[in-house]
Specification:
Largest sheet: 5 strands, antiparallel
Number of strands: 5
Helix content: 40-55%
Strand content: 5-15%
CATH superfamily of the largest domain: Hypothetical protein af1432
Mean pLDDT: 88
Distance between the termini: 89 Å
Strand order of the largest sheet: 2-1-5-4-3
CATH class of the largest domain: Mainly Alpha
Structural class: alpha+beta
CATH topology of the largest domain: Hypothetical protein af1432
Shape: elongated
């Protein structure tokens, strides 16, 4: 069929009516403004919200429709789009008469054939229900985190009640391990996992007899064998809890050493997680500088000398470097 001028105009008219009809029946609020932020077009959904017929809003601005503070915010967003010539997504309040909600609005520049910006085309979605749901979920998550932290604290208290000579050991180890992790640039998730692992790293000691834990003299080989079971015991208690599986792994490895002389599996360098390597150093520093029933506390310099001497042998070099920087340059303290 030959396309004549008459049929082309007729088709163009049909297409125009089709798209106008489509825009007017969209549930989203659609509008078009000129470079002075005057409304050139709004669809029926938007007009019905405002209680105004679409043709009655032509030539008006947001200052004629909305409270001044909100209208100025809308106009500022328009200016940003007109100035940059780039689309902009905004989450903002929307207050038609008798309503108060939140919308996600996408504003895009309209350009002529020469590329000059001549207006702003916008579409707004009501996301009030979504925002309220997110707020409820955030409150629920906050309560869950608080409960979770309370449980961790209760477990730490139980550990320290059974082994009073290590009272405060968990807390100090947490403080140093997290400081090292931050110094090394670990992610928030890694630091959060390390914080919990450091809090619970001696959990497995609840299975060790009290007379061994509190023995005022050096342990014999059999007694030390009992002590060496605590990473495995801690791992068994936590590994079946899906949420705590990454934490259980850190606890399991925190007595492994770079050269493979650690326990329980004698893992080496790359086989040991970074979090476990950090916890190993923090645990050694805190333990050495604390009093034990079988020996007095070592000085901080002695503890730092231990990790410095064995960097790359027992302890990760980068972890040692970060630890020494914390104490010697940034004056880290357990107090």
């Amino acid at each position: 069929m030959k396309l004549t001028k008459e049929t082309a105009l007729k088709k163009l008219k049909i297409d125009k009516e089709f798209y106008e009809n489509l825009i007017h029946h969209l549930p989203e609020k659609v509008f078009y403004k000129d470079i002075k932020s005057r409304y050139i077009m709004i669809n029926r959904s938007f007009a019905d919200d405002l209680g105004i017929k679409p043709d009655k809003i032509i030539g008006k601005t947001d200052l004629d429709i909305f409270p001044r503070r909100i209208a100025e915010k809308y106009r500022k967003d328009d200016r940003d789009v007109l100035r940059t010539g780039k689309p902009k997504k905004i989450i903002e309040p929307y207050c038609p008469p008798g309503k108060k909600c939140i919308v996600e609005c996408i504003k895009a520049p309209v350009k002529d054939k020469k590329g000059k910006v001549i207006g702003v085309l916008g579409m707004a979605y009501d996301i009030t229900e979504k925002v309220n749901l997110i707020k409820k979920l955030q409150k629920t998550l906050q309560k869950f985190r608080q409960t979770f932290n309370d449980i961790i604290k209760a477990i730490v208290d139980i550990i320290e009640t059974r082994d009073p000579y290590t009272s405060g050991h968990q807390r100090n180890t947490v403080k140093l391990a997290c400081a090292i992790a931050k110094e090394m640039g670990l992610s928030k998730r890694q630091i959060d996992n390390l914080k919990i692992a450091a809090s619970l790293h001696d959990l497995g000691k609840i299975f060790i007899p009290m007379d061994i834990l509190n023995k005022p003299s050096k342990l014999n080989d059999i007694e030390f064998g009992f002590i060496k079971t605590h990473p495995c015991n801690g791992y068994k208690l936590l590994s079946d809890i899906k949420l705590l599986a990454p934490i259980a792994k850190i606890i399991y490895q925190h007595h492994e050493r770079i050269n493979g002389t650690g326990y329980p599996e004698g893992k080496k360098n790359g086989e040991i997680s970074l979090e476990a390597r950090i916890l190993a150093v923090a645990d050694v520093i805190e333990a050495m500088t604390s009093h034990r029933p079988y020996r007095p506390a070592h000085s901080l310099e002695e503890a730092l000398g231990e990790i410095e001497k064995n960097a790359g042998v027992l302890y990760d070099r980068k972890v040692v470097k970060a630890t020494l920087k914390l104490f010697r340059k940034k004056h880290f303290s357990f107090k």
